[in-house]
Specification:
Elements lengths: L1 E5 L3 H13 L3 E5 L2 H6 L5 E7 L6 H4 L12 H12 L4 E6 L5 H10 L3 E3 L4 H10 L11 E4 L4 H14 L6 E2 L10 H9 L4 E6 L18 H14 L6 E5 L15 E2 L8 H13 L1
Parallel strand pairs: 1-2, 1-3, 3-4, 4-5, 6-7, 6-8, 8-9, 9-10
Length: 281
């Protein structure tokens, strides 16, 4: 049996599909209430539904008043589905704007209501509580990188083939879906358990002429700062892998990192120790 995803955001919907696939769960996707209602109920036994969804009252039968002009379309849809299938397992998801009506209704029905910003772990916990997921899925990683393609490939290979994690996320491989760079980061970070930052000596500077070290790409430093702010420096979810000689901005001097001068595989045990809490928590 499968899980139905009802989500109109292409980017976030894709993340949910990949998350379920990583846990060997088949998934169906609908972007509107009317699309969801057209899918036969015997094709899925659980549903993840966004609270705010597009709704065509003529097509779905859900009135503007019932959907609160679209702000509670997901709640109205969940009501319809439960009326026909009281045993259906439902999770509601919502953006950062919390709606007291959706919160009150979900609590009264014993339905998990999760903020998208709470991320993959919150959805995972809800799915586990409903019995949809058995056991703990492997963590999902994001790789921040510069020009060192060999280091990037070594790290991907280590995560997938040694730690047996799902394929890590690399920003350039993700669809833009009309989003700005910051919006992509914000959406991606909500579904990420761990970030690996490759600080490699990529860019030449004026000081390089005087035989001073090269520096990491500025986008790498920016993304490192972004994820420290987003995930918390002390969360244990950011692992910095350093390759030298490398000139670093003074603002990030003192950060602990793991040397990969001899390759990622050689540093494998240090990396494993850093991410062990993510596997065992």
């Amino acid at each position: 049996m499968a899980t139905l995803i009802v989500e109109d955001d292409q980017f976030y919907g894709r993340q949910l599909l990949e998350f379920l696939a990583d846990n060997s769960i088949d998934a169906l996707r609908a972007q509107t209430a009317e699309e969801a209602l057209k899918i036969p109920g015997d094709r899925y036994d659980a549903a993840i539904i966004d609270v705010m969804l597009p709704n065509d009252p003529n097509a779905s039968g859900i009135s503007v008043e019932e959907s609160r002009a679209g702000f509670l379309t997901g709640v109205a849809l969940a009501r319809r589905l439960l009326k026909d299938r009281p045993e259906l397992k439902i999770i509601l998801i919502t953006g950062d704007m919390w709606n007291s009506e959706s919160e009150h209704w979900s609590k009264s029905q014993g339905i998990p209501l999760i903020l998208k910003s709470e991320g993959r772990r919150a959805i995972q916990a809800a799915l586990q509580s409903l019995g949809v997921i058995k056991g703990m899925p492997r963590p999902r990683a994001f790789i921040v990188h510069g020009h060192d393609e060999a280091a990037l490939l070594q790290l991907k290979n280590y995560l997938q083939n040694t730690l047996h994690w799902p394929e890590p996320v690399v920003l350039r491989e993700q669809p833009n879906s009309g989003k700005t760079l910051i919006e992509k980061f914000e959406d991606i970070s909500g579904g990420i358990d761990c970030v690996f930052v490759l600080l490699t000596p990529d860019d030449a500077t004026v000081s390089t002429i005087a035989n001073q070290p090269r520096r990491s790409r500025q986008n790498v430093i920016f993304e490192l700062g972004f994820f420290f702010a987003q995930l918390g420096r002390l969360s244990g979810r950011i692992v910095v892998l350093y390759k030298g000689p490398n000139e670093l901005p003074s603002d990030i001097q003192g950060i602990a990192w793991i040397s990969i001068d001899d390759g990622v595989e050689a540093a494998g045990e240090e990396i494993r120790r850093e991410v062990l809490p993510l596997i065992t928590q």
